[in-house]
Amino acid sequence: MEIFINGNKINFELENEKSAFDVINSIADFCSSSTPQQFVTGIYIDGVEFSFADEISLKKTLIKSITTLEMETTDIFGITTLSLNQIEKFISLITDIIEGSKWDSGFANIYDSMDWMKEGVDQIISIFGTEDNRLLNEKIMFVSAFDKLFKYFDKLSKDKYPFEPQTRKDALDLKNVMSQSITNLKNYLKESNKFFDYDTILENINKLICEVDEMIPKILNVSVLFQTGLDKESMDVIQRLASMLERCIGLFVIFKENFKLYLDKYTVKEVSFEEFFHTLTEHLKELMTSIENNDSVMVGDLLEYEFVPNLEQIKTILLKIKNEAFVKAN
């Protein structure tokens, strides 16, 4: 039996697997624990498509009868995009009903089939929700329009069809709001996926490593700038330092949440990265206070004894993560 994942032949050593169901579940478990996490979206046995949910048929299909097993997988962005595409198709079906003039007995059941769209959007927001509430606003817009449109289909029957002109207009307006929210979600995922791409992550790691090398001598010179009255120049360096630390924190969050890296093996000074960056943030506040108080001695001490060693630690950890989790993984 030959096994292909996304068109690439893989070497899969059989252990106790006896049926297609056993093999597919073993591969699915491997995919779900990989970095980034993958989800099975398609199964083909000797050219015939099977559903992942068709457990009975897959169990009946024994390994010895299979010549080729092909599987398609995608990451969390891909599976979410597929869900959004399904919602778009269902909205298109609803649009046909709203604009139509000929009754179909199946229309009466559409009401019972609509709720999954709202549940799907809610699930997506719970996965990709952001602190700026950008996606939460999309959810609010979608759910509000959905709940109003839902009522038009509550008691849809042959004697109430087709829709009255004003009802049709109102329903289409609500449908447009829902469609726009789905489009906005897809655009957000498209932009986010670029940032979570391996090559982009490597590029960001390399940039931060170079910035650390450039920043350290500038940091050591800040106290001199400060003492000689070059406040603007010294503040420019501090602002760049703060910006760099913010991007480092964001990158480490992505390592943990999106690439599922086990960060305990990449501890900084024997503490978690959360604790490490929290301490650095507190030092940054102390630094700003020292500058406001014109305390050049404290400014110099913080930069030399806190920030420089910690930046060197960040560089070391980034290099280790890059080499072990990204370069070797590829």
Question: Would you mind describing this structure in some detail?
Answer:
The protein has helices at 20-32, 55-60, 76-99, 115-128, 134-152, 165-195, 198-220, 222-227, 231-257, 273-292, 296-327; strands spanning 2-5, 8-10, 38-45, 48-50, 68-75. It is built from eleven helices and five strands, in the order E-E-H-E-E-H-E-H-H-H-H-H-H-H-H-H. A hairpin with a 2-residue loop joins strand 3 and strand 4 (48-50). It has 330 residues and is an alpha+beta fold.
Number of strands: 5
Radius of gyration: 28 Å
Mean pLDDT: 85
Q: Strand count, sense and closure of the main sheet?
A: 5 strands, mixed
Short note summarizing the structure:
This protein is α+β, with helices and mostly antiparallel strands. The protein is built from eleven helices and five strands; from the N terminus they run E-E-H-E-E-H-E-H-H-H-H-H-H-H-H-H. Strands 2-1-5-3-4 form a five-stranded mixed beta sheet.
Search tags:
3 domains, flat, 65% helix, Four Helix Bundle (Hemerythrin (Met), subunit A), single chain
List the helices and strands and how they pair.
Elements: E1 2-5, E2 8-10, H1 20-32, E3 38-45, E4 48-50, H2 55-60, E5 68-75, H3 76-99, H4 115-128, H5 134-152, H6 165-195, H7 198-220, H8 222-227, H9 231-257, H10 273-292, H11 296-327
Parallel strand pairs: 1-5
Antiparallel strand pairs: 1-2, 3-4, 3-5
